[in-house]
Amino acid sequence: MRISATLYLTDETITPVRLARELEARGFAGLYLPEHTHIPVSRESPYPGGEMPPECARMLSPFVALAQAAAVTSRLGLGTNIALIGQHDPVDLAKQIATLDHLSGGRLTLGIGYGWNREEAADHGVHWPTRRALVRDRMALMRALWSAEPTSYDGEFGSVAASDVHPKPAARPGRALVGPRTLIGGAPGPRLYGEIAEFADGWMPVGGSGLAARLGELREVWERAGRAPEEPYAAVTAVVPDAGKLEHYAAVGVDEVILQLPPRGETDVLKALDEFGRYL
């Protein structure tokens, strides 16, 4: 089981360069970064789980920060948890993702989600009731651009002509889908499982009870969708670790655990890495 790390990386925290170097030197598998473009001051959307952390309004662009991390490492995995695909122009985002994956030697994992902040999404022109369909459409359009041969796409929310476009994401033999490994974040249930089986490679849940049963349900939907013999990848994120918890995740078939670091400066983050080192 891979052990990675995440934090709300901002203009006030440890830098991505320093953090990436420390993670790779200590043997962590990857660095995952979340995304918010902005947080409208006038907001009715409740933050999942309580009061919104102030760091949400200060987050660095995950793709720019991960590019810095890629440049100073050679083995460290790079990922988003999660990227708000519906809030991007898909042609431009496809180029950013392919470039980052190419320059990092295929180290990118694309964690995606549907978002929680209606006001933020509205500023990007997202109609909230159709956001899930929008994300599906965006992924299909980007995969058309990532295809080996020029491929057109005409969808509900966007289209692209068959185009000559490079770079391509790194090749990943044995996968049904083109592009980086894609994991969908979200609450468990038949709808999410169906979306994962349709256009992703696995699930990125926040840790919680009942994970063994939920992973079993996902695998059943996955097999019914004809995705076997591939297995859905499971990366549990925002984990505050202890030995028993990590042993449980390994036992139920979790592929990767993403530990939660504090959104602080170098001293506090390095102290947390020292404490987490026992779990590697």
UniProtKB/TrEMBL annotation:
Residues in Luciferase-like domain copies: 17-240
Alphabetical list of Gene3D superfamilies matching this protein: Luciferase-like domain
Coiled coil regions in record: none
Protein name, per record: LLM class F420-dependent oxidoreductase
Biological source species: Streptomyces polyasparticus
Lineage of the organism: Bacteria, Bacillati, Actinomycetota, Actinomycetes, Kitasatosporales
